Amino acid sequence: MKKTIGKLAIFILLFICSFGGAYAATEVTASVNKQIVPLNDYLILTVYVSGDNANSATVQIPSMANFSVSSSGRSTSISIINGRISSSVEYSYILTPKYAGKTSIPPISVFTGKEKFFTKEIEITVTSAKSSQAYQSQPSQPQRTSVQPKNRPAKGTPLENLVFVKAETDKKTAYPGEQINLSFKFYTAVPIARNPEYFPPKLYNLFSEDLPPVRTGEQVINGIKYYYSELKTALFAINAGKARIGPIEITAQVQKEEDIDPFDPNFMQKFFSGFTNYEEIKLNTKDMGLEIIPLPENPPSDFSGAVGNFFISREVDRKEVKSGEPLNLTLKITGKGNLKDISVPEFSAEGVKVYDSLSSYSITKHDDIIGGEKKVTYIISFKEEGLKEIPPIKFSFFNIDTKKYETIETSPLKIKVLKGEGGKSYDFSDKPADSGVDIKGSDIKYLLKPSAGLSAKIARKISTAPLYAHLFFCSILIFSFLKNRSVYERLRNPAFYAYKNASSVLQAALKKAQKEASSNPYKSLSLIYDAITDYLTARIGENVYSLPINKIVQLYSSKFKAAEFTLGEIKSLLEEIEFLNYASSGLNEKKVSEVAQRVSTLSEMIEKETKK
């Protein structure tokens, strides 16, 4: 018994050594392409996450009073080297300023499922709007005077003719999964105090992807010159039938009527600069309906719902391998369409063992078209030596350009498989092969006693160690196995891992907040706010951190069969936290404890309503 445990201890040491570098520390950074930006321009924010848990991380862009934020893409990389899985993710965002002045991008939180990391604050200076080329090219005052009567709105023109919004889609009918572009334009012929605030519509049988950046320009309509900003969104229908886009709302602060010359060379700076004599207006679009037609009948047998126009390729990390050794086979699907949600093809081949598959994706948004690349890495091994062939991998989709189903496939690939260690081929069958030899005992006497090498001496020392030492090493083995399994599960299904652990993570955060409430109640309140938004993000499956409270409630209501009390409590609780955070006084340890208790009670109701 003791010898058996001793052998196990030797294995443990080797196992621990093999995992010595298996875990890479998480690295989180944020950067911008420029720190000085004009009011009518935008900047690009990039958040980079790397480490073992990078692919399962949730980036939470905080609410920023001076910036409108939209996602412009995501790039993921997963590598498998000697059995170690490492990943990195790069998120890109477009930030459009609302008013001029010094401001900052606050620390961005990145939640990996168990730990939360924060980036550094980034200082930003927003300057006055750049003059348009049209104004800069106007050579003299007389030329402006000659066109002024045509383009200037008459005094007393109704406000609805000076400031209005327009929304339209590029198509009225579409297939499920086909991209529909929604264009929203804000027109104004009078100066505004700052860039308008946009509230996205509620979508029915649709989901959306931002198409940044915000476009700006000039347009003459009915003899009046307008400045406009255009925001585009890509929509994808979920099922055949009816789909609907709810009203889009925008809030703007416009200059009250006075004698302002829109052809003044400095008008562009005045147009977007702050004014004291302004009024706030709210504008809404009307509901828009869409007809979603079903995909054609008789799809290929392996069709899993992919819609777009795609190409396929494959590669391996090496073309010569020993039997039983892992080989990384990577399949790449590129093109236009919603690559994020497409199902990866199954892979199987005779004489090949498939251990698992890992997927990653990158999203691109060029020329208002959603596309990118999805990678699937299959970890495989060959059972026998010889010149082996990896057969073609097929992928079927509905080609949105030809309106037909297509099946594409990779070309076959030859792999040279050598014999495994010890000159043997690995057998992956459940029952070990019979050796055909019945060992009765030892009938060999050595003329010379073999000398023990260093490893044998170490093994002998370990095997004679006390039982408690062996048990200690066994516990390390179990811990290492469970830790590695946990990392693997997070990489394999990050969304489900966050969903499953949301409650325990929330309760741990609430305990931490209550401990710090006596010394710093405002910090505790901030921890509670982060905890509830992290929790809602995990349970809903979408990032709610930068959404207005009403939109969070609408999103929750659209995803689950929610009780009115739950919806009201979510709204009330988030509003109270925001109020207490900005209140000058009145926050104390008792109030923080009450809020924490409300969050805990609310989470119990959400657990029941969001149970899968």
Distance between the termini: 46 Å
Question: In the residues, how many domains can be counted?
Answer: 4
Find the count of extended strands (DSSP E, 2+ residues): 30
Biggest sheet details:
6 strands, mixed
Average pLDDT works out at: 79
Low-confidence stretches: 12-23, 132-149, 272-276, 423-451
Range of helix content: 25-40%
Instruction: Return the CATH class of the largest domain.
Output: Mainly Beta
The geometry reads as globular
- Individual helix count: 12
- What structural class do you assign from the helix and strand content? alpha+beta
Going across the biggest sheet, name each strand in turn: 25-26-24-22-28-29
CATH architecture of the largest domain: Sandwich
The proportion of residues in beta strands is 35-45%
How does this structure look, described?
The structure is a single chain. α8 (494-516) runs antiparallel to α12 (589-609), α9 (521-540) runs antiparallel to α11 (564-582) and α11 (564-582) packs antiparallel against α12. This protein is α+β, with helices and mostly antiparallel strands and 612 residues long. It starts with a helix and ends with a helix. The protein is built from twelve helices and 30 strands. The protein has four domains: 27-127, Jelly Rolls; 133-137 and 144-292, Immunoglobulin-like (Sandwich), CATH 2.60.40; 307-423, ntegrin, alpha v. Chain A, domain 3 (Immunoglobulin-like), CATH 2.60.40.1510; 494-609, Four Helix Bundle (Hemerythrin (Met), subunit A) (Up-down Bundle). The model is unreliable at 12-23, 132-149, 272-276 and 423-451 (pLDDT under 50). β28 and β29 (404-409) form a beta hairpin.
